[in-house]
Amino acid sequence: MPVMLRVGLTGGIGAGKSTVAARLAEHGAVVIDADAIAREVVEPGTPGLAELAEAFGREILTPHGELDRQALAAKAFSDEESRKRLNAIVHPKIGARTAELTAAAAPDAILVHDVPLLVENGIGALYHLTIVVDAPVETRVRRLVESRGMAEQDARARIAAQADETRRRAVADVWLDNSGQPDVILAEVDRLWADRLVPFEANIRLRRPRPPLPSRIVPYDETWPAQAERALARIRLAAGDKVIGADHIGDTAVPGRSARDVLDLQVVVSTVNDSLTEALSDAGFPPGDGFHVGADPGRPINLYVHTPDN
Predict the structure, then answer these.
(1) Rounded distance, CA 294 to CA 281, Å?
(2) pTM above 0.85, yes or no
(3) Tens digits of per-residue pLDDT, 215-228?
(4) pLDDT above 70: percentage of residues in the chain
(5) Cα(213)–Cα(205) distance, integer angstroms
(6) Which helix (H) or strand (E) holds 30?
């Protein structure tokens, strides 16, 4: 069974990620908010909150029986063993609730997973596409001070504690600059939905052939290697222990060379069988005419799959 399109959405605090998430939801995306789930699984009356109180003491609760997050942080992050205990309680519950919401989505859904720490946790390869929302630091500081009432010093500290722009760009298939007026980024999201996400979902679900590849030669793009590496990470994850090697090949792999804007990738595997074909298809690389192709209409890819003796 084909899988639904999985989109990772992230961005630094104050960048405006929630604006993008809300617009995608208006278009019909199923948005799963990781922060909201983390709060939900420790609400009053939940097994999660009861387990936390048992593990860290009743003093982590407010007089009204709610979680006092500062009190919990003081205990849970005091040493490595306490942090592991916290994660062992909370993470399985977050995972189970996420899986429940995912299973409830329609087969043709576009699933958007809103994950603030996607970059920091190194999970970009889990998604068919990763969207990063960004804005200049000063813009983000101003937003946090004005809209959240945060002290400027605290806002800058929160921003500094997260991944920087370089790390975010490394994982971004789509980079949305949210430094301007709201209608600008909303229009970008509208185009992204219509031109890329909707056809991407259909291509994966239907194993549909992609449109003709670009034929025009373009100047060398310095981001080609990073784009290739993101795709290869998804391929390695999908193929698992069958992978012997995976590489960026062809003209776009040659620094400085002009080429068609098509990434040629090669994966050498121990065995080629139906289960591998299905796994690669689910990851966004369905079979084409003698090789696999990228289902993302915004990133043409040819994927050649070989065994060592072929």
Answers:
(1) 9
(2) yes
(3) 899 999 999 999 99
(4) 99
(5) 20
(6) strand 30-33
Tell me the pairing of strands 5-11 and 129-134: parallel
Query: In 3D, which of 115, 127, 118 has the Cα closest to residue 238?
Result: 127
One-letter amino acid identity for 262?
V
Neighbours of 215 (CB within 10 A): 7
- Tally of CA atoms within 13 A in the half-sphere of 27 that contains its CB: 24
Q: Quote the strand ranges of 123-223, DSSP E.
A: 129-134, 174-177, 217-218
- Does residue 13 sit in helix, strand or coil? coil
Cα–chain center distance at 88: 23
User: What's the chain's length in residues?
Assistant: 310
Angle between helix 47-56 and helix 69-76 axes, rounded to 10 deg: 50
Residue 74 pLDDT exceeds 90: no
At residue 142 the predicted structure's pLDDT band, cuts being 50, 70 and 90, is very high
Q: Rounded mean pLDDT of the chain?
A: 93
What digits encode the pLDDT tens for the residues 96-123? 999 999 999 999 999 999 998 899 999 9
219 SS3 class: coil
106: Cα separation from own chain's centroid? 20
* Contact between residue 202 and residue 208 where contact means Cβ atoms under 8 Å apart: yes
Alpha-carbon gap, residue 13 to 163, rounded angstroms? 10
For β-strands 110-114 and 30-33, DSSP reports them as parallel
Amino acid at 39: R
The dihedral formed by the CA atoms of 139, 114, 297 and 171, expressed in degrees to the nearest 10: 70
